[in-house]
Specification:
The chain is an all-alpha fold. It contains four helices and no strands.
Amino acid sequence: MFEIERSSKKTLHELISNCKRSDRELAKVLKISQPTVTRVRVWFKKNQLIREYAAIPEFSKIELELVAFTFFKIRVGATKEALEEIRKKAEAFIKNIQTSF
């Protein structure tokens, strides 16, 4: 587990939101130097905190659909409170997926 400083977390967040931006553009947005952005990005890659850069297609425009299944394991005899907690987690998961795309 790595402890990441605040500016590095912000850099990672910006890379996640748009990985195609140059280090110079990221530096302007983050109000830090371009060499700092480059150093942080290289450190992320070296320590395998960034696996790859990916494009997320607009599935509706290319006539493809994304189907995902999520399974939750519920033990026999689960309490109402436990079932309610599972329901809330499932709803939060679905909401997060819908807002990600």
